[in-house]
Design a protein that fits this description.
Number of strands: 7
Radius of gyration: 15 Å
Structural class: alpha/beta
Shape: globular
Number of helices: 6
Strand order of the largest sheet: 2-3-4-1-5-7-6
Order of helices and strands: EHEEEHEEHEHHH
């Protein structure tokens, strides 16, 4: 399974830059840095393009809000003629411990509205995804408020390492079989 469109989910704007919900954007930024890419605004997204290991790869940050991410993903998939099975969605997950990664070839949204929007827009659950654990909200804190909050100072090192590990996992997917990378990082 080739991965040709890598989508990082997040919310646009300065107010959301440092929030837990924007980890997908951070992974795309880390990939762009590792590959020395320059991006550009295209429709409802920010896009980076590269030839990596002899294959054209597209890196996408939807500039719609999280719950509408599918619109930008579908537009890019159609424009670049990339089927859903070759789209990798990178997203935050509050059900995973802080810093933990989980790579899957398909499945439900697990309650993540950004992923739900992508799955609905692409018309299938057969969309690979890489979840990055952001930890669970403390007792009494609403999940919506939690995902829109910044990481605590003592969490920053762990999440920075997770973003690097996610970047490396995506790069590995360009050279190795999906199942092999999945076994290694899960």
């Amino acid at each position: 399974m080739a991965v040709r469109l890598i989508v990082g989910l997040g919310n646009p704007g300065k107010a959301y830059e440092a929030t837990r919900h924007n980890v997908g954007f951070w992974v795309i930024d880390a990939l762009a840095g590792a590959l020395c890419l320059r991006g550009f605004r295209w429709r409802d997204a920010y896009v980076y393009e590269a030839d990596v290991d002899g294959e054209r790869r597209v890196f996408l940050k939807p500039l719609t809000y999280m719950n509408l991410s599918g619109k930008a993903v579908r537009a890019a998939a159609e424009a670049y003629k990339i089927p859903p099975g070759e789209v990798l969605v990178v997203l935050d997950d509050l059900a995973l411990p802080l810093g933990r990664l989980r790579l899957r070839p398909r499945g439900s949204s697990g309650g993540h509205r950004g992923l739900a929007s992508v799955l609905e827009a692409l018309g299938t659950e057969e969309v690979p995804r890489l979840r990055v654990g952001i930890g669970s909200p403390p007792p009494g804190v609403d999940a919506a408020d939690f995902v829109l909050s910044p990481f605590l100072l003592e969490e920053e090192e762990t999440i920075a390492a997770a973003v690097e590990a996610a970047r490396d996992a995506v790069l590995a997917l360009f050279r190795e079989p999906f199942a092999q990378v999945m076994t290694r990082i899960n």
